[in-house]
Every structure is written in C-alpha cells, then in structure tokens.
UniProtKB/TrEMBL annotation, chains A, B:
Residues 340-359 are annotated as: Disordered. Keywords: DNA-binding, Transcription, Transcription regulation. This is LacI family transcriptional regulator. It comes from the Bacteria. InterPro entries: HTH_LacI (IPR000843), LacI/GalR-like_sensor (IPR046335), Lambda_DNA-bd_dom_sf (IPR010982), Peripla_BP_I (IPR028082). One of its GO terms (molecular function) is transcription cis-regulatory region binding. Pfam families: LacI, Peripla_BP_3.
Amino acid sequence: MAPIRPGSNMTAIASALGVSAATVSNALSGKGRVSPELGAKIRAKAEELGYVPSVTARALRTGRSRVIGLVLPDIANPLFPQIAQAIENAAADAGYGVLIADSRGDSSMQTLAIQRLVERQVDGIVIVPRLGTRIADLGCPVAVIDSPSTPGNTVSSDHWQGGQVVADHLVGLGHRNFVLIGANPLSNVQNDRIGGMKSRLPKGARFETIWIEKLEALAGAGCSLGLKQKVELGFTAFAATSDLHALRALTELQQAGIRIPQQASVTGFDDLVWSSVVSPGLTTVRQDMAAIAEIAVGALVGVIGDDAAEPDAATITVGVTAVAKTDRVPMTLVARQTTASVSSPDFSPASPALEGNDP
Amino acid sequence: MAPIRPGSNMTAIASALGVSAATVSNALSGKGRVSPELGAKIRAKAEELGYVPSVTARALRTGRSRVIGLVLPDIANPLFPQIAQAIENAAADAGYGVLIADSRGDSSMQTLAIQRLVERQVDGIVIVPRLGTRIADLGCPVAVIDSPSTPGNTVSSDHWQGGQVVADHLVGLGHRNFVLIGANPLSNVQNDRIGGMKSRLPKGARFETIWIEKLEALAGAGCSLGLKQKVELGFTAFAATSDLHALRALTELQQAGIRIPQQASVTGFDDLVWSSVVSPGLTTVRQDMAAIAEIAVGALVGVIGDDAAEPDAATITVGVTAVAKTDRVPMTLVARQTTASVSSPDFSPASPALEGNDP
DNA sequence: CTGAAAGCGCTTACAG
DNA sequence: CTGAAAGCGCTTACAG
C-alpha cells in the first residue's frame, strides 16, 4: 500500500520555494529567526500544498511522541466515558493524543497494558489505579487520579466534600435516619464519601452503613439488600457512594412498594447516565472531570517539558509522578429528588437515637 | 528532559557484538537470512540490554504507525466502554494501539476529531457513525460499525435477529400486548430491532410503538411516558430498543405501582451495566462486541497490509472502506425476568386484535 | 550469510 | 536572516 499521507513534506515546500528545509522548519515552527516576508511565503506555500507535518518524524527527532496513555482498572467502569472524554479533551487542547489501555478485567494484565503503552513511547500516563494498587515506577511521567486520601500525589475530586453536600441536602429535606450504602470498605474514594456524609449528620441522627461488593450477584430472583425492612425500621434516606448502588436501592425500594421520594430519598454519586433517566431521577453529585483532566494532563505536560531530548543517559528520569501536590476538585450537587415527606426536621425515631452502629 | 526510553538501541546491540545494525534488524525481525547462531546471540544480547524497539523510528521508516483510531459519535454513550474494550483488545492482539477521538458532543466537531486522528497518522479508523452521517473519504482505511441496513459496507450485530430473540422470549412468556419503545425512528439500528420484534409477534397480537428521543427531559417531576395507562389498557410487555429506555420504563412502571415482572415485563438491548443491577433485573440482548471488533480490526489490518510504504504518490489510497461485506454478528438473549403472569398464551385483549397502530 | 549505504521527515546546533 | 550538515532509530534493497 502506498503511504496514506499527502505527498507534501518540508522538502517539497523548500524546493518549490528554492529555500532550505531548515528555513521551512523555522518558519513553520516560529522558533528560528526568519524574515517576515519569507515566513509568509513559506506558510502560504505550505497551505497551498496541503502540508501536514509528520508527527512520526518529529517524534523520532525530538524524542517526544505527543501521545499520552490512559489506563483505567476496568474500562467497563461506567465512569470511563466521562473520564475518557475529559482526558481526551484536555489532551487535545494541549496538543496530545490519547492511547487507551485495557487490562481485560484481569488485574494481572494491568501491568502488561501499561507496558504496551510505554513501548509505544507515550510521553506520560494518566492512571486511575485499581483499588489498593500502588503504581510502580514506569520510567515515564504518571498522573494518578484517585482519592486525596490515597498516599502519594494525586489529582482528585474532593470526595469528602461531595459527601457533605449530599448529607446537607438530605438533612435539609428533614431526614434523620440514614442508610449509607458503599461498595467496598477498602476504597479511599468511598470512605471519603461516606466520611463526608457522616461528618454532616446532625446530633441525634441515626445511621447504618452497608457494604455490598458484588452488586450483580443480586440480580438473581429473591436476592435483596433488605431495604424494605430498613424503611420499616424508620430509615428514610438511602445514600449510596455510587449511582450504580443508588440505582439498585431505588429499584429495590420501588419493587417493595416504597414510594420515592415520598417515603424515602435515594442519592448516589457521579451523575452517571441513568441518574437523569430513571423515575424519579436520582439526586447525585457530579465530579468536575474537565477540571480534574486539565490538572492531570497539565501536570503531565509540565513534566514532559518543551525541551528536546538530549541523549543524556545519566539523567534518565524514572518514575516521575507528575502531579506535584494533592489537588482537590470540588463536587457539585445535582438534586433531582427535591421533596420528601419526612415528618419533621426534628423527627426522631421511636428507637433510641444512636450515633450509628458503625465500626 | 532526558529521553524516557532505555538507552539500548540496535546500534548498541550491533556494536556490543561487533556486527552491523542491519544484521541485528534482520535477526530480530526474522526477515533477512541470518545464521541461527548469530541470531541467537543477537536475541540474547537484546534481551540482556533490555532492548525495546523504537516504534517511532519504525513508523517513520515503514510509513505505518501501527495505531488505529476509534471514533464514536458520543464518547459518553453508555455502550462506549464495551466497544472501546473490544476494539482495544482486538487491536492489541493484532499489534496495534488505539487512539481515541472525541467530538465533545458537538456533531460539527466530529470531522475535526477524525482529522486529528489522521494527522497523527493512524493506519486506519474504526467509526461508529453518528446517526445519518455518511463517512467522507478520510484518506485512510475505515471500518464502520453500524446496522446492516445502513448503505455501504459495515460490520454489525444482527439487530433484526436480536429483535426476534426478544420477541420470541416475550411471546413465550405469554405476552400478546406489546409496547415497543424506541429512541429515534431514523436510526437503522433501532428500526432493525423493532422490525425484528414485530416480525415475531403472533397473529392477534397487539402492539404500539412509541418514540422518545430526549429521555433526560423526562427527569423533571410529573413527566412520564404514560406507561401506567398502557398497562390499564391491557399492555403487558414493554420492549425497548435500548437498556436506557428499558430502565426508564422499568422505573416509571414501578413508580406507578405496577409489579414487575408479575404485571408487566420489561426488556432492553445491549446488556449495559445496570441491567443486571436493577431490581428486578432487565431482560436484554447482548451484542458480541469481541466478534464485531475482531472483524472490524481484522478488515482494517488486512487493508493496511504488511508491505512497506513505497512512495508511489500516484496510487495514494483514499477513502478505502476496509470492511468488504456486510457482516452480521448474532446477538444473544440475557433473560433476567423469566416469569410473567399473563393470563394465558392464548389470551386476547377485550379490545379488537389489531395488527398494530403503527404507520 | 553479512555489511555498507541510503533514507523515512524532521529539528537543531553551528556556520556563514 | 538563511543554509549545509548531522542525526533521531530503524528497514530495505543491494553488494560482497
């Protein structure tokens, strides 16, 4: 097969104009000094010939590919579209392409997926690490998106604050009896969210936390989280650490004949696609992915730098973590269940007011 | 910044062994004839030095980047994770990387996103086209994933057959009164799915089709599809062309106090993440994304070819469509609502049996 | 079987 | 301000 790219290269422009390729390069990059007139002529000719620079040649020469990699623990994660979109946008704005990696759901494949990226000579990698994973030195700059509670430098939403926002909203609706629903007690993100929620529950509020790791396992008939019983026990607010769990709670409650939001409120996190589609809509908290992506990509680009690759093997930079400090990006409430018929803001259940049964 | 990659290149191996770079290249690629002993020595030394080939240099020399692009109309599409994962896997198996493109939700940006990909010299592009979009000649091989009903060469699930599978399932449960729910009457995919469903409704069955394009608009309080009334009119099966619409139907029915699956069955399409999480689970139809991705990537790789780029400008290949024929990949039912209390398989509604009120 | 040479398209010191 | 030269790391005819 013939080459895909149009035939025009710097040499073509140079010879068409009787100048050198170096001058064309200088004119087009604006780096070397070129007379205004010649510069204009060169740019015009480039335009005329439909010149498209060869990123490949540039990469070979400069040692920078202008591509970053994106790694998620599980590409099937419902948050992936939001993240990928934000990263791609931020990268494109910075002149970078985004190569994706998938570990095929297998934890042990994650390293291989990252390695494939490195072999493709990405200039840096954005990683949303698998739960509990420490990212090894990759030999290239890395930006980690994770909870601020995670050791090491990360960019992240302020999940704790997000939890507070949800709790404030629920408390404002009059709720005093909370069921907090999490997926994994080892997740820093989820612990932050739950911690933030708890921190805003008023004196006398009652809460209970349930962790449900394998949500799909409940799909079988008869399986349930027992949420109906919680309602019978006087719980009225069901606050999940993810929209997926909130969806489970919503449908299970509805299935049990509980009216939402009249008898109970359900909230989630992340404003995933279905939260605006279910009836009633899910109150949730949205991450500012654009801001997170900008910080992550910006940090990466900063470390990658603009200087050319000097073949100075002695100073090979290994395992740079690009994000220099822990950035916390605020989250915003998306309230879709704005009413609730909780008896009164001062309502206390018949059972003694507990500070919770949590460990 | 110093170059990221380890210092070892072919020249390093060559000089360490006192041979030429050409021989190293031949030994490592297995293309030129090299004596078995020398070949082994070279491979050992490469291993020892931690040699990683420069994809950049190879790309510059061969004219092929070994990267393909992936373009979806809307990266926020809930099917995106499934597709991206499948394409990435198929591409990795074929030795290709995957660069993503995003049009930022803006239809007019799609062309720009594709152009960015082309400028990065991808060897080919996999496109899931925006509704009604014809893909212009891109100057590089393209594989289109779309409905088989779409003009031109495409790879696709057999959406019609998928519709039949759903209908067969519902009919088998005893349903005779169907509400078909689609998102967009202009979508070939959805028309195929609905067409397939209709084709399997038995004589005397009644059906009605409703199209609901802006699902999110329903999130507001009071908005509804009026599904409760449908139940009152005797409809028992609600079959949507997407899990997102099915989710809306499920929650709206539950919200209205209808018991699922006792009083009505709800089915969707695509086995999106929440279909196994809601209560009760959604019966749905799964696409074989792995097979589709393999066909798409395989076709692309076939067109890209193994031959080197001869600078034969006269035969620049423009707008190749890589997929040579319309492939139809069968879909499989995922039944999660396996019971229904429809009076009897021969039950006919009081109202006259219609062939449907559809145009 | 092995090597010397050219070249993919660009950028970057270094001269002029 | 402009150009000649070298080189990023590889592959591919072509000689030997």
